[in-house]
Predict the 3D structure of the following.
Amino acid sequence: MPTHLTRRDILKLVGGSAVGFFFTPVPWKLLDDTSIWTQNWSKIPPLPRGERTTRYSACTLCPGGCAVRAQLVGPMPYSLRGVSGHPVSRGFLCAVGLAGHHMAFHPLRLASPVRVDGAGDEAKVVPISADAAMRMAAAKIREGNGSVALLDCQPGRAVSAYYEDLARMIENGLYVTAASREDSTLQALRSMIGEESAPLGFDFENTSMILSFGAPLLDGWGSPGRLERLLKGKPDRSVRFVQVEHRQSRTALQADLWVPVNPGGERALALSIAHVLLMERPGRRTSATTIADMASYKETVARYTPEAARAESGIEPALVRQVAEELSIAPASIVLSGPDAGGGPMERDTEYAVAGLNLLLGNVGKKGGVVFLHEMPGTAGRSHVVRDIRDVPDHSLNLLIIDPASSGYAVPWKSLERKLCPGTGMVVSLAATMDEIAAHADIVVPAPAPYESLQDVPTQTGASAATFGLSTPLLPADKRSVDPASFVAGVIRLAGFPLPVPQCDDLLKERGRMIHAERRGTIYQPADGSTVRVAELAQFDELWTKLAGAGVWVDDPKEQHEPAEASLGASMLQSRGGPRRADPGLLLIPYGYKRAVSGAAISPILSKLSQESALRPGAGTVALHPVTAALSGVVDAECVLLDTTNGTMKLAVRIDRSVRPGVAEAVAGPIGRHGADIMDLCDVREDGTWRMTNANVRKA
Amino acid sequence: MFGSGLALALFAGWYGFPRILYRSETQPLQFSHAVHAGEKAGMACGDCHVLDAAGRFHGIPGTAKCAECHSAPLGDSKEEKMLVDDYVTPSKELPWRVYSRQPDNAYFPHAAHVALAKIPCAECHGPYGQSEAPRVYEVNRITGYSRDIWGPNISGIASHPWEGMKMDRCVTCHATHGRRDGCIDCHK
């Protein structure tokens, strides 16, 4: 037997091993395991592990206040969804809300208070302490030059009332809201009927017809679940829904009738409908309300025959008469206007012209119309007519403090900048993430992210009964963030107004105590879907325990009565002469989707759902009618430059036949994480609107 | 020599390879399912492994669940003392190593399988409820997952229904029951 290995033996051994190798699990198992290994790289965050539990809370990303059922692994929420059967949100939770628990981990999350030195590309961000931020803001108040304003984009909360009281303490102190307000019609009606403290709502559930001027009723307006459940996808619905809008929005697409009014022509259309109701069909719908300025109102609308208004509104007289006829025979109707999430509010006189139709039709104080609500307990006598930032004189603010709560609507920096004292005005932004406004502020103070602190969810816009709920924390508080109410109180105390600094919980409990003392309404509990009357709860602690479990209090309905007297705002309607738009050429019209107008307000992980979906064209594109595109010499998907007097932006063209010729539609929101916003190109007019800007498109 | 090479490769592949691929780890506590689910304590699986009203599985119970009975040591065993002193008293969660843990991109609804299809726990998890102590946890050095996912036999051939929890098992079982599913039914 040979004892030495030859070269041939070694080759045979290797050959045998190689053949044998393929008859073992090694190659196949290694292939499988390697593919799984690629899913577990250290940069891919793993889900936490632990017991799974379910908790309830409410979304505060916008004032919609949708109820949330959260699933948690250990202390970490990993899934949010709506709560079916909830009396406010009716099971609805939007795509942005579904990822609300991501916001605490947003890459733009602020870690400490910062001071911004300089402007533009040379701006330097310097970390400072919260105390230093308070001292700087307090020094501005002590200077006494100009006014001090607190901007609250979610009015109606317990902290809002506190802000209002603080603003009153300071000389030249102002409590203001954002310009885009969903309750613009209710605001106008409060002034018209002279009851500024009257809480009003819309009785959509019992109405026969809704005539909406631009309000995105099926795109997040008010409590989104309410109108989604009532109007969306129901061909046999009992409500006739007419949408007046200059663009074919998602709401317009789902309306029974879309009235494609000219941009800025809503006022003329509303007045021509009033003309038909008053002059051509008098007495079809009667109102018990005495109109103080009816003579001058008639004088104004007399000029707005459907034929005369056609040039401004762009609507055929027959269609105007048809809508007016439908309104006049509808047993109950609601007429309202509303801002676009990106395009902003309508002109104040347009809001009045629309709101006045409700008084003409006798809709106010009637079932199925505009209804009176009971006062929110603890707010009796407090005016609901709150001035918005449009009403603040230009160049008058020495200090502007911005609360972190978002309205879900765009707030162009230009609309705030023009209110500041030139050169000296300071902006303090309380924000969880570095959003578009915070990026322009002088001082930015980190606020708690959604689900990190206890907050209240006040009555939603247009609700037919007052509600109150709590957004309970799902995440541990971030020690780096500062409670906004405590910060504002601290600033005002340092400015020389001694006052106790409240805890947010105390403000909320106080409101809860008021509700318990009134003993009205019911509390719904999402965990088991049960309801209990407040009157059956002997102790306040019982009520608070139910609210802390994300229960929601729903007030009882109020007995309705038509207001005895009202005005139609005739003097305001007379003030404008002709059509708002005189310049020919291309018109830039921004629009947006509620809650999705800021990149800092959306979870980056939602990009597939909310930022790149073909259903919701993303920022960075401009939509043109084929004729407009041909005249400009551009084609679909081509990169173009969009010029306005405010600058130039590079955008991709999207050819869309639904866009009006002569119009460039662009969606609000930043392009990329640090990109420019179409809002930067828009003109903010003296009346505080930014719906239309003259523009030009050219090849890049 | 060819035969020797063949035999060597087969031996290394079938005997040596699994021993290199898997690393053995012990569970933090020698928990006896037999004691808890047997006559002594008489508990049902669902007493600790909670399925809510909708059939959703709530994972391995937290220490708070143990504390319901074990707020103080029951008996004088070393394991009992460790449970109370190291986990229950400081409210610290037990770092259990989960044999059936799936990748995060695989979504397995217990509700559909247990509440709707009425599949018993042991059908997938085996007779684990009768064990005196947790088995040694063997972790795949490459993937980080338990050996139970592939199955005890390195060939991947299962001799019991509960051996192996790979996707082919899901697909085979669904096909047997006439279920046709798309990718996103399981992969979110």
User: Anything to note?
Assistant: Residues 21-29+96-188 of chain B form one domain. The beta strands of chain B are 22-25, 137-140. The mean pLDDT of chain B is 88. Chain B touches chain A through 40 residues (CB under 8 Å).
